[in-house]
Write a structure and sequence with these properties.
The structure is a single chain. By secondary structure, this protein is an alpha+beta fold. The chain has one domain. It contains two helices and six strands. A three-stranded antiparallel beta sheet has the order 1-6-5. The protein has a three-stranded antiparallel beta sheet with strand order 2-3-4. A hairpin with a 3-residue loop joins strand 2 and strand 3. Helix 1 packs across helix 2.
Length: 92
């Protein structure tokens, strides 16, 4: 199974909205990859930003796959990757 960049962003928006009790549409997300930090996401909520690390991204993806696809997966099954776009491969 492969999740697109849009699905990863949706996963982060849904996860953050559940944590903060706000609408997913009020959240903006930008994914990035850096040699020093690996995969991260900058999240903007009400003109304030914070960063999520790879473990947070995998947690959001784990929850998203369960809610949207009804599949229980574990973080160890998720591999994040990028070239021009980001994606997440999920091992069976």
């Amino acid at each position: 199974m492969r999740l697109s960049m849009d699905e990863i962003i949706n996963a982060v928006c849904l996860s953050e909205s559940a944590r903060r009790g706000i609408q997913p549409g009020a959240i903006e997300v930008q994914l990035s990859w850096e040699e020093e930090y690996g995969f991260t996401a900058e999240v903007w909520i009400a003109d304030r930003s914070h960063y999520l690390v790879e473990a947070n991204l995998k947690e959001a993806i784990e929850q998203y796959v369960f809610k949207e696809y009804g599949r229980r997966i574990y973080r160890s099954q998720i591999t994040l990757d990028a070239d021009e776009e980001f994606w997440a491969d999920i091992a069976e």
